[in-house]
Design goal:
Layout lengths: L1 H4 L16 E5 L6 H15 L3 E6 L10 H10 L6 E3 L4 E3 L4 E6 L4 H5 L6 E4 L7 H10 L6 E6 L7 H8 L5 E5 L10 H13 L1 H7 L17 E3 L11 E5 L7 E9 L2 E10 L7 H6 L9 E3 L4 H9 L4 E3 L6 H12 L2 E4 L4 H9 L2 E3 L6 E5 L5 H9 L17
Length: 399
């Protein structure tokens, strides 16, 4: 039927005419995954009488489904005489049906749908584990098949774990990118080349189908570097301390300001540090007990203990939004944060300290994840005298 109606599908999708339970096509933008599956299903629906479920996790209206994609292909190839296109359904004159349902809000309706021959899950990276657990056993007709298409987002997404990391039996799994599409349009090529030169990591995710790294959501993306530098001649150091024990470490950070840059030259990081040993921890960073230290005010008993041991320490100021204000100050007041290569835990935290990402839309949210932040918290405490409720760039007097 493909040759008779002359529908064009790139060669990389030729395995669709084999006999697998699961067909998994994943990769970057411009690979023709969705268009190829849609064309294939149109061919199948004309050659056989099939019930085809087209689904995704969220579908609040038919406009969010592949209904318009299928309709567009039908009209492009002048096949409308073979199909009846309604507002919420498509059927062929030989009795095939296309059904469009969202999973998140209609899972019971999907569960009660009988006799599905083929199920196409578009944007499968957004499908929840709960939806998969109901959907897969629902498609149980003999020789029924799944068409699964998605752009990878996170390694822990259920579809990535269940079909890429731990491949289901009787599956065809292929990564396809724009380079596999002989009909890749020039307008997309220009967009791809521009992103490749301006944000290579994002290019790898969007166009090469690599898992999304934390770089897009990094709190300090583009604001820090790891470099050797000298602390000679520094007039004023700033010290911060965060308290932990088992799961969270105790940390001490030393930093200084020079030429509108914030330099972090020393860190100490330790788990299971007993109260009596906190002074030894501090001494690894601070030369003498006359230096001011700002610590986590949520631990007043620890601050009191260290004061009694002779350390010049006080609680850092906190308020609702103080974390965000501290981040904004560091990002706005300094041209760059320069971290010494010896501060390995601080470097790791600056790489991984991130904003939350909406699992459904992949939108980066203005909510900071409370993780990979122990050295960063100590850094904020150390800058206590500069960070205010309303973010302002202050002249530190150190040049």
């Amino acid at each position: 039927m493909k040759n008779e109606i002359n529908i064009i599908i790139p060669d990389i999708f030729s395995d669709l005419w084999d006999n697998y339970r699961y067909y998994v096509y994943y990769g970057g933008r411009g690979s023709s995954k969705s268009h190829s599956i849609a064309r294939y299903l149109i061919c199948k629906s004309m050659s056989q009488t099939l019930k085809i479920l087209c689904t995704r996790e969220l579908q609040n209206s038919i406009m969010e489904s592949v209904h318009s994609l299928l309709t567009g292909i039908i009209y492009t190839y002048k096949l409308d005489r073979y199909f009846r296109i309604a507002n919420h359904s498509i059927s062929s004159i030989n009795g095939s049906q296309f059904i469009f349902k969202g999973l998140a809000h209609n899972i019971e309706s999907v569960k009660s749908t009988e006799g599905i021959d083929m199920c196409w899950i578009e944007e499968a990276d957004k499908v929840s584990k709960a939806s998969w657990e109901i959907l897969i056993p629902t498609i149980r007709k003999p020789n029924s098949q799944f068409m699964i298409t998605f752009n990878p987002t996170h390694e822990d997404d259920p579809v990535y774990q269940d079909f890429i990391v731990n491949t289901q039996p009787n599956s065809l799994v292929k990564k396809v990118n724009y380079s596999d599409n002989p009909y890749f349009p020039e307008v997309l090529r220009r967009e791809m080349e521009h992103l490749k030169t301006t944000d290579y990591e994002k290019y790898l995710h969007v166009w090469e189908g690599q898992l999304r790294t934390t770089s897009d959501a990094q709190v300090f993306k583009g604001k820090y570097s790891v470099e050797e530098f000298s602390s000679e001649g520094v007039e004023a150091y700033h010290h911060g301390m965060d308290f932990g024990f088992a799961k969270d470490p105790s940390t001490v950070i030393r930093c200084f300001i020079r030429d509108r840059k914030l330099y972090i030259d020393k860190e100490v990081y330790g788990h299971h540090v007993e109260m009596d040993d906190l002074g030894k921890l501090i001494k690894k960073v601070i030369a003498g007990n006359h230096y001011k230290i700002f610590g986590d005010c949520a631990r007043p008993e620890t601050i009191s203990y260290l004061k009694n041991q002779g350390w010049n320490i006080q609680g850092a100021d906190k308020w609702a939004g103080s974390v965000e204000d501290g981040i904004e100050y560091i990002r706005g007041a300094f041209e760059k944060v320069v971290i010494h290569p010896s501060c390995i835990h601080t470097i790791e935290e600056f790489k991984r300290y991130s904003f939350k990402i909406d699992k459904h839309t992949t939108e980066i949210l203005p909510i900071v994840i409370d993780d990979y932040n122990h050295c960063i918290d100590a850094l904020r405490y150390g800058l206590n005298n500069f960070i205010k409720r309303k973010v302002t760039i202050y002249d530190t007097g150190v040049m």
